[in-house]
Design brief:
Elements (H helix, E strand, L loop, with lengths): L14 H33 L5 H4 L2 H30 L6 E8 L2 E6 L6 E4 L21 E4 L4 E7 L4 E5 L4 E5 L5 E5 L5 E7 L11 E7 L1 H14 L1
Parallel strand pairs: 1-5, 4-10
Antiparallel strand pairs: 1-2, 2-3, 5-8, 6-7, 6-9, 9-10
Helix pairs in contact: 1-3
Main location: mitochondrion
GO biological process, one term: ATP synthesis coupled electron transport
GO molecular function: copper ion binding; cytochrome-c oxidase activity; oxidoreductase activity
């Protein structure tokens, strides 16, 4: 969960998000080193009155400043491609959930169960219980088992939406008439918050996403209660 004046990312709750955080730190260090070198060169060029005639026309320097940036780009591209393939990999998901975006709420369908579906609306401020988060809590949470591969099928009924949960490293557009797919595994139990990340109308800010990860036994108990209510 993000907090005021936070500078970094939220704590990773999935293996993919951990990889994304490592890649972010790796790339940021490269950017920092390049920025420091460029700043040093600028300061040196402005402050010194000396001129080296070998720097003004040097084949060796031109070779170096052509090859070194290419190597740096490769060092960034290879980890990035690896993470892209990891995010697209779907291996035998335990549960498939369909998220359907509406103006302005989400609907969830557990396709492995019969008649297990519900709408998820934001809880109004005046109805919040103590300790709940304003504009982020919903009346029905998407409950899933922890440490299980989850496949999400995401689409929309009316306009463009985007199903995004930062702690899980998941962000997928919900497009009317198109079924997008993503997957994730939650490493530990907890409640993870997200919001629609595509401007979708007047109440775009009021369609939060709440994912609750629980042990498998608790999930089975929850699904049994939901099916009994139906």
């Amino acid at each position: 969960m993000a907090h005021p004046s936070q500078l970094g990312f939220q704590d990773a709750a999935s293996p993919v998000m951990e990889e994304l955080l490592h890649f972010h730190d790796h790339t940021l260090m490269i950017v920092f080193l390049i920025s420091s070198l460029v700043l040093y060169i600028i300061v040196a060029m402005v402050s010194t009155k000396l001129t080296n005639k070998y720097i003004l026309d040097s084949q060796e320097i031109e070779i170096v400043w052509t090859i070194v940036p290419a190597i740096i780009l490769i060092m960034i591209a290879l980890p990035s491609l690896r993470i892209l393939y990891l995010m697209d990999e779907i291996n035998d998901p335990h549960i498939t959930i369909k998220a359907l975006g509406h103006q302005w709420y989400w609907s969830y369908e557990y396709t492995d169960y019969q008649n297990l579906e519900f709408d998820s609306y934001m809880i109004q401020t005046e109805d919040l219980n103590p300790g709940l988060f304003r504009l982020l809590e919903t009346d029905h949470r998407m409950v899933i088992p922890m440490q299980s591969p989850i496949r999400m099928l995401i689409t929309a009924e009316d306009v463009l939406h985007s199903w995004a949960v930062p702690a899980l490293g998941v962000k997928m557009d919900a497009v009317p008439g198109r079924l997008n797919q993503t997957t994730f595994v939650i490493s530990r139990p907890g409640v993870y918050y997200g919001q629609c990340s595509e401007i979708c109308g007047a109440n775009h800010s009021f369609m939060p996403i709440v994912v609750e990860a629980v042990p498998l036994q608790h999930f089975e108990n929850w699904s049994s209660l939901m099916l009994e209510e139906v």
